Amino acid sequence: MYSLTVKQRQYLKGLAHDLQPVVMVGNNGLTQSVIKEIDLSLNAHELIKVRVLGDDRAARESLIEEICSKVNASFVQHIGKLLVLYRTAEKAKISLPKI
Q1: pLDDT, position 1
Q2: What is the value of pTM for the model shown?
Q3: 63: domain range?
């Protein structure tokens, strides 16, 4: 998992503002197919939003760590039921600001 600076995180939050969620974690939780879909979406887009159903904030926060470790992504933002994740692709589409 890549550690983002505050400046980089702010930049990614701005880019993610207009994005729609591409993956939804449903009542079955974090299944292997959901992890695969998140991985494919990160390969294609680098920056994605994930919608998590359920009202338990603590469960969503534990999902963040689990998702990030399994797909080697960086956590950008958690707002409501939306998670914003980032992972650099082989051919980077997003150039992060330097420190």
Answers
A1: 59
A2: 0.91
A3: 6-86
